[in-house]
What does this fold into?
Amino acid sequence: MNALTYYIRIATLISVGLVSTLQAVAEVPDPIAYVTNQGGGVTVLNARTLKQVDEVAVGKDPRGLAVTPDGRWLLTANQGSADVSVVDTGTRKEVKRIAVGRNVEFMRISPDGRRAFVTYEPSSEGGPPAKNDRAGKGEEAEKDEAPAEVAIIDLSQWAVVGRIKAARETEAIEFSPEGKLLLVANEGDNTVGVYELSTLKQIRRVDVAPFGNRPRGIKIAPDGKTYVVTLENSNNLLLLDAAFKPIKTVPTGQGPYGIAFDREGRYLWVAASRADQLQVFDARTFAPVATIPVGKRCWHFSFTPGEQKLLLACGRSNSVQVIDAQKREVVDTLQGYKLPWGVVTYPTSVGTLDAPR
It folds into this structure.
């Protein structure tokens, strides 16, 4: 082989490699955001352009939702039809329904990606409790006292394989850092239940009543040292240490619910829904950093995969608001939704309903 032939072959290999690299880059799909509409189905957004790409029909009144770690399946918790829909994200068609129970609402997929955990309330008609709302109701009051449950769905079988007895009116759920424990916020009796996933047995019950009222959201800090619980009716946060001991309360705007740390754990974002605000706190000192005016009944949100923006579902405004995460201001309002409830993305982003694994 002479020198000219050698260099021609080297140039050819480099060219082929460059073309292959460019093709691989070009074929990387845009990230996707999924938004549940209580008054409709699931809106599919291009999370880069924020343009709607599809609308997926699922069960009635979808609320909670989750995407499997490989992005292949989308699950929705359908309050009105008492089941979970399984959607093929490639075809964007529902392929299966899994019966769960009345008033299904919150959903998370386990850190190992093998199971979905879905809260539901067999005795509940849904909606928030009023003060002394069970007084004088006799038999109906006793029915309302029945504990809610968490259904466990095996994602390889698409079937309910277990149920955890919780307390009245389960809401948010969270996992411990090592994925061995499940935490459940029980708004109806002011507790946070801690369950061992290997046995499905409760190992701890945290009474939050001395610190506030109606726990709804719960998130663990990225460093695994602190859990933060939103107490909706007392307008504050409760911090628990890694052993679930209450250590501090932090005042918020009215009606805090959805909550999430950013990926680095520098800031904590809180949806103060009754105040029509999205609040930002320093995650080390929990001092307030910013307050962003938003729409009505904004409960859940997710960062986009690039973490430059945040998507906030505002149910009573029938919109999704786009927040610039650096400027901490609303930069766009996406209209045309029907009581939007929750939002998640793929690839998985930090948000109130999900976290990168």
